[in-house]
Amino acid sequence: MNQHKKRVNGGNQITEGAIWKQILFFFFPILLGTFFQQLYNTIDMVIVGRFVGKEALASVGGSSGQIVNLVVNFFTGLSAGAGVIISQCYGARSEKGLNDGLHTAYALSIAGGIVATILGIWLSPTILSRMNTPDEIMALSTTYLRIYFAGILFVFIYNIGSGILRALGDSRRPLYILIICCLVNIVMDLVMVLWLKLGVAGVAIATLFAQAVSAILVTLVLMRSKDMYRLQLSKIRFHGRMLKSQLYLGVPGGIQSVMYSLSNIIIQSAVNVYGTDTTAAWAAHGKLDAIFWMISGAFGVSITTFAGQNYGAGKLDRVKRGTVICLLMDQGVSLFMTLFLILFRYPLFRIFSADPAVVEIGADMLRLIAPCFIVFSFVEIFSSALRGIGDVLIPMFLTLFGVCLLRIAWIFAVVPMNPSVHMILMNYPVTWITTAILFIFYFRYRIQHPHHLRQSS
Known about the structure:
Elements: H1 19-51, H2 54-61, H3 63-92, H4 95-130, H5 138-150, H6 152-167, H7 172-195, H8 199-223, H9 240-272, H10 276-288, H11 290-312, H12 316-343, H13 345-350, H14 356-369, H15 373-388, H16 393-414, H17 421-425, H18 427-448
Helix pairs in contact: 1-2, 1-7, 1-8, 1-11, 2-3, 2-5, 2-10, 3-4, 3-5, 3-6, 3-9, 3-11, 4-5, 4-6, 4-9, 5-8, 6-8, 7-8, 9-16, 10-14, 11-12, 11-15, 12-15, 15-18, 16-18
């Protein structure tokens, strides 16, 4: 920590008390928040899939969904650098660092949102075409994407605002905001699709409106804070040293997120070749296995904040013990969710589509992939804990090899030898196992040699 920090008296629950209780206390609001965040696009897909048709389902959740994930995940990973710095400043009680970090992060979200809006609206048709998007859903996919990108600034602002609150240990208010906005989205979806008959354009407009509400609410929460931090609109700007630190920790996370998304886009392009039924099934599958991702991701956010604050407070042993406890909890819940998804895969897919072919293809996909979910918990928890203590470069390279490069090699080298949807999807178990092994060895090394980590605030 630098010499300009201001010490403030006061305790911090995350750096004290029973570890498992602190993780779970933080985990459940994040999980519920992630659940409601997932509902945004899931409700869109259910409504268009049931009331408009499988072409609409494929256009909302297929190629367009992967493109949205790429952009949003990159910024979420980038903004995670701000969360790490802010959690470390809060753990060390550095008021100046905390407020500089808050206003710099908001400036970054506004600048990023403007750039993403312009590029997204301009490049949407070109990107969709390059992804082998079926002709019958090309126009619908373009409409959905362009409307979504028109409001992506609100997504960025909400993500940075809620990320800051979580980094400070406040996971409840982001949850309350998401519940409100999810209800707004559902009502708007029904009005736009069932009453106004706007179809895919309607669900995109509904999502944009709900996300605007979430951005406004989270900003108001930060502006009205009575803690040692407070957002002031007039002070939103880049603080050079703080921006450098946030980018140092955030860019590797953003690149790591892009690696996941790029590899998924390549996979989506390969799946699209098999037609609308397969594309629609894969879109619905993405929303069902999101149940696992939101649980594992909630544990990941929890351990990032836990590790960041305890590392900032100089409690490295607590970081070690917290990571192991969080890993065991994640694996236990992952095992339960795997069994649930496999046992109920047919009725779950019928929520999205009444088409028997779509349901059968999707159920087969889930049966193949779900048994390997538990392996990914090693990657999620170890990479998140490392991010919390400021170690981001090596995890980025591990992900580059294990997820991105290996998946691309699988699609272009292995799949052509036996082209099929099954062979395309086998890349997930193969790359998860490989990446998990790499993270297990690296985390063990890093936690035994914690020196030379950069103190960033």
